[in-house]
Amino acid sequence: MSSKTKTAKITPLSRATLKGVWCALIVPWTARDEVDGRRLIKEVRGYGGTGVNGVYTGGTTGEFYAQDDASFEKITQIVCAEAHAIGLPVQIGVSALSTRTVRRRIRVALRAKADALQIALPFWLELKDDEVKRFVSEVVEEAGKTPIVLYLTGRSKRKIVPEFLGALAREFPTFIGTKDTGLDVAALQAALKEAPDLAIFGGEDFFEKIPAGGKGGYCSITGFNAAKVVELYTLCAAGRMDEAKPLADALRRYLHEALIPMVKNEGLWDSAVDRVQRVAGGGVVGLRCQSPYRSATEAHVKRVIAWCRKNAPELLPPHLA
After folding, report:
1. Structural domains present in the chain
2. Terminus of the chain with fewer CB atoms < 10 Å: N or C?
3. Which pairs with CB-CB distance under 8 Å and at least 24 residues apart come from 278-281?
């Protein structure tokens, strides 16, 4: 592992500074389902110079649900050290089923000097309003000055309505943003009406979300071609929507025609599909998902590349173009 000394100044994350393209990191597993540290270091380093605004761990892409304490600590230490060494801020995903486990993971992340913490609501039993507030309060207390990003996903079973989101934002200043890839434009605008300074993110749908007030995206497609996703964000953030539209359309087709059918028709989960596009994009993470979830195959990788060559060659990463 490299030195933990930061080689570039990293702007502290806040509601005002959290923006742009954030890349979901995939964990390379060994044949024994242990973290492959050497490949993880190479994976993090691979995003240096791509233009992404930061990296994050512990979502669906990173298979947080498959991490024991030892795996979580190793991933956290490697990612923070390697990302900071190339000047990228890090959000460490600390999601778990109990507040006690979350608090323990927060302490690990703080020791590794995470720039922010990303967390979903505990999801085995659906939380009531008072339980959501208690959970956020206890997380904020453990995190201290380190910012919190809520991962609002249907998989946590609990929808946070705009009024409640606004109340949480007003009460907890270190709650700086949300990741909500299921939010449409109308829902985004409703949320911003209640929490106007909150940094609300979707996925790769910058073309629709940025004009409506979205701050950027937490993106798995960066695994295939980070530079293209950054290009789209940059055009949208600059208001150059006419120039952005062809690229936005190509990425939308890639998502709906090359990736989503693997989920709907072949039973692969998001984490497996994200590995397909990362391997196709030149990453070293491999296709192995943690058991019992099924993994994709090299045939899926070849299919994604073939689709792009035929339908959207402008999306091909440099090593395939």
Report:
1. 20-239 (3.20.20.70)
2. C
3. 278/26, 278/223, 278/224, 280/224, 280/304, 280/305, 280/317, 280/320, 281/223, 281/224, 281/225, 281/226, 281/317
* Alpha helices, H only, 120-221: 129-143, 162-171, 185-194, 206-209
| Cα–Cα dist 125/250, whole Å | 39
What does pLDDT average to over the chain?
95
19 φψ region: left (φ > 0), alpha (ψ -120 to 50), beta (else): beta
Percent helix, percent strand, percent coil in the chain, to nearest 5: 50, 10, 40
**Residue 266 has which token pair?**
């072949």
- Residue 148's H or E segment, with its range, is strand 148-151
pTM of the entire structure?
0.94
> Given this model, what pLDDT does residue 259 score?
96
As given in the structure block, the two tokens for residue 133 are 């507030």
Structure tokens given for 215? 């701050």
User: How many DSSP H helices and E strands does the chain contain?
Assistant: 12, 8
- Of 157 and 275, which is predicted with more confidence? 275
Report the alpha-carbon angle 232-95-24, nearest 5: 25
* Mean pLDDT of the region 238-251: 97
Q: What does the DSSP 8-state code read for residue 77? A: H
Are the CB atoms for 253 and 314 separated by under 8 Å? no
Tell me the pLDDT tens digit for each residue of 11-51: 999 999 999 999 999 999 999 999 999 999 999 999 999 99
What is the number of other CB atoms lying within 10 angstroms of the CB of residue 146? 19
Report the distance separating Cα 295 and Cα 281, nearest Å: 17
- CA quadruple 290, 293, 299, 300: dihedral, nearest 10: -100
Whole-number Å distance between alpha carbons of 245 and 256: 16
Task: Please check the confidence at residue 137 and state whether its pLDDT lies above 60.
Answer: yes
